[in-house]
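tmp note - Polymer-forming cytoskeletal protein
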Amino acid sequence: MIKYFEKILNKFNKKREKEDFEEIRTFICSGCFFEGNISIGEGITRIDGEIQGNVKGKGGLLVGENGIIKGDVEVKRLLLYGQIFGNIKAEEVELYSGSVVKGNIKTKSIYIEKGASINGFCETESPSTS
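out:
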């Protein structure tokens, strides 16, 4: 199990500075259900269970293959393997094969792997020309 998390963290930290994502600080495991809004701090919050409510915070959010969020997400960085039924606002968004988004995405940077699904609009900021 630890090697699995190390693999995920290595992928999550790929091409990122260490101070951005040092460790998973919050973990909502598969089979857990949470109803209500969640505020997350810095570091990584990993969700493998189901959330019915909005998720907002300054840190990173990793939604595992079994993770489901039914609400809006507003975080610094999002790494999605599971499903989000709501709007997403993040500086960086990474959608991996098997992930599902049913809502709009607003981001500065997006990566979409083959096999990911988006049913909504995607808006990206243009680089500044100053």
